[in-house]
Write a structure and sequence with these properties.
It is built from 20 helices and 17 strands. By secondary structure, the chain is an alpha/beta fold. The radius of gyration is 26 Å and the shape is globular. The protein binds fructose -6-phosphate.
């Protein structure tokens, strides 16, 4: 990326991020898409820094509207770095935060006051009196005059020069939930259920999430001279599409930004993936370069959209759906057969390769016949949830399978569950340590952090459950590794960043096993979540080991978790399961009893993990059937990661 600033308008052609098409027929908000949210955040921070400096030169205050949540964290990190290393001063900066929960004390770890100080204010030279964050302790009649005064204070400061936003899955900006009026100002709002579900993990359960908040209004946000909205991860893809391409509606408050004349959405590939120009570019761009991947994506889309098998697609189907360019190169008969074969070749019951078989059109190599395999599982149950069927086959087919649990998963065990095990332990072998443990579990409050002992207990509950599952799949204990990566061990939902210690542990296990195959979780739904940090740890270890001779024979396969599945055109290996294998996989998932019935971090899907996994695997099989291939009960899908060329 050559330029340091974000483009302010569409015609800013000097700025051309990766994957950006000129064609934006369906789009009503200027947006730019980046490969990495981190790089994008740095550019946003640079734009803010530039503004702060310009204002400084003129001796003027710089008025920033700021957001909290996971989206802006990297921007704040970069601003702090610029302050510490490049002398960027915040002495002339006045800030107004978008919102605060109600009720909420400042010193509560979940307060936005706490968040802003932790991520930004404590590390820069902003005068305390220049910081404005709605007061979550107000009650009754004091709130309305306070909100009016907040608006007035923004105006008195000269209005917002720059407003940073995230977007909620409801389409909220600030906490302007669906139903918000375009003329709304700072006020009290009742939070949407989805918003509370999304906040639940940080509050250790939805019941602890406040029901109300004070938020700047839509009109307050719109009054800013410049607005930048950050959107990261596939979780945001649907709402970004609705906001950028849909009609303006109070049901999706962020659509009001279509009326702002200086607004940019800064997205990563995941968040931008459902925009028409990315999802179905053939509908907007006549002069597409038809690569093999794009062709597969288009043909499978056409087949599924029209409800016809691949082999039944006609010239007319292609021509009517923006794909006449494809037919210029080959007729539909040849194209259909080519795409059918491509898909057919992804299916294999031999995920470790089929011994003594011609492997030219199989997803995996036939040799070596017995492979060494590492399955990296971010939490202690992702292995069976996401690839239990394939795991089972690899063992049955005689490969040396290792499973490496990257994190202890202790945070997802409830106190009730921990107490149960502590009491059992006390009954068998009473001791002061266990008594202390029981007392510390019982005396926990909503916001207290688990002690090291409680974490150990919770982690060992998950270890025992993992052993139950791996033993059930006939894997000897010596092949089961618990890495307990340090980045995870904070005792809270918020994790540390990856450090060299984490990467060294990953490198170590790979170097010991010298695998021919690595399986890793390729979830990118939440770019700041544990799965994605665990994937970064895998990638960092691969990078370190690139030059090791055994790595030339190592293939890396990415699976997806309980949250979402690969698109069908992406799948490079599909491992079918019989009805009996589906049940076996279910039983393996059941071994993780602390995660059954009462899942702590389940998002807005109230089903247990085994149900989600079964549905995903059945859906994949269904799609293959609808595309005209054989009908299986279920399928697990994998994408190969070519790390040597990355
Ligand atoms: C935060 C705020 C919210 C968040 C939005 C996205 O001050 O007002 O609108 O920006 O909920 O949250 P994250 O970034 O956590 O996905």
């Amino acid at each position: 990326m050559s330029t340091a600033t974000l483009p302010q308008k569409r015609s800013d052609i000097a700025y051309r991020p990766v994957g950006q098409f000129e064609e934006t027929r369906f789009e009503k908000i200027h947006n730019v898409i980046f490969d990495s949210s981190s790089k994008a955040s740095i550019l946003v921070a640079q734009e803010i820094a530039e503004l702060v400096r310009k204002k400084q030169e003129k001796g003027l205050p710089c008025v920033l509207g700021l957001a909290t949540g996971s989206s802006p964290i990297r921007v704040y990190e970069e601003l702090v770095r610029m302050h510490q290393e490049e002398g960027l001063s915040f002495a002339n900066v006045v800030t107004f935060n978008l919102d605060e929960y109600l009720p909420m004390e400042k010193d509560n770890r979940q307060s936005y006051w706490y968040f802003m100080h932790e991520h930004l204010f404590n590390h820069v030279d902003i005068p305390e009196e220049n910081i404005n964050i709605p007061d979550g302790t107000l009650t009754g009649d004091t709130i309305i005059p306070y909100c009016l005064a907040y608006e007035q204070k923004i105006m008195d400061a000269g209005g917002l020069d720059f407003q940073l936003l995230g977007i909620g899955r409801t389409g909220h900006i600030g906490f302007n939930e669906p139903g918000s009026h375009r003329n709304s100002g700072t006020r009290v709002i009742t939070l949407d259920h989805i918003t509370r579900v999304d906040a639940a993990p940080s509050f250790l359960g939805i019941d602890n999430v406040p029901r109300r908040a004070i938020t700047m209004g839509i009109a307050t946000v719109q009054s800013a001279k410049r607005v930048v909205l950050l959107g990261w991860g596939q979780n945001k893809a649907d709402i970004i599409k609705k906001t950028v391409e849909g009609e303006i509606s109070s049901e999706v408050p962020a659509t009001y930004l279509q009326e702002h004349t200086n607004c940019t959405f800064v997205l990563d590939n995941g968040a931008g993936s459902k925009l028409t120009r990315n999802k179905t570019p053939w509908l907007v761009d006549e002069s597409l370069q038809w690569t093999e991947t794009l062709t597969a994506k288009a043909v499978l889309w056409l087949s599924i959209t029209l409800g016809k098998s691949i082999l039944s697609l006609t010239d007319k189907d292609y021509n009517d759906n923006g794909m006449s360019g494809l037919l210029a190169l080959q007729d539909s008969y040849d194209l259909n057969i080519k795409m059918f074969n491509r898909l057919q070749h992804t299916i294999t019951g031999w995920p470790g390769g089929k011994p003594n078989a011609d492997d030219t059109s199989r997803p995996e190599r036939a040799t070596p016949e017995k492979k060494r395999v590492i399955i990296f599982s971010p939490h202690p149950d992702d292995d069976v949830i996401s690839m239990g069927g394939t795991f089972d086959r690899l063992i049955e087919q005689g490969h040396e399978v290792h499973v490496a649990y990257q994190t202890s998963g202790n945070i997802a065990v409830t106190d009730t569950e921990a107490l149960k095990f502590a009491e059992i332990s006390k009954n068998i072998n009473p001791s002061k340590e266990v008594d202390d443990l029981i007392t510390s579990i019982k005396s926990k409050t909503e916001s207290s952090i688990d002690t090291l002992e409680i974490r150990k207990l919770k982690g060992s509950i998950r270890r025992s459950e993992s052993y139950a599952a791996t033993r059930y799949l006939n894997l000897a204990d010596e092949y089961v590794h618990f890495l307990d990566l340090p980045f995870y061990e904070t005792g809270t939902v918020k994790k540390n960043s990856l450090t060299q210690d984490d990467i060294d542990i990953m490198v170590d296990i790979i170097d010991k096993v010298k695998p021919h195959q690595i399986y890793a979780a390729g979830d990118l739904a939440d770019p700041h979540g544990t799965h994605s940090v665990c994937l970064d740890a895998v990638f960092a270890a691969l990078e370190t080991l690139k030059t090791a001779s055994y790595m030339k024979d190592c293939w890396v396969w990415l699976y997806r978790g309980a949250w979402h599945e690969w698109d069908i055109h992406e799948i490079e290996m599909a491992v079918p399961m019989s009805p009996a294998q589906v049940l076996k996989k279910r039983s393996a998932i059941f071994c993780h009893q602390s995660q059954k019935d009462d899942v702590m971090f389940q998002g807005d899907d109230t089903r247990e993990f085994w149900m989600r996994a079964e549905e995903r695997n059945k859906n994949t099989a269904d799609k293959y059937r609808k595309l005209g291939l054989a009908e299986y009960a279920a399928m697990e899908g994998f994408v190969r990661h070519h790390f040597m060329s990355s």
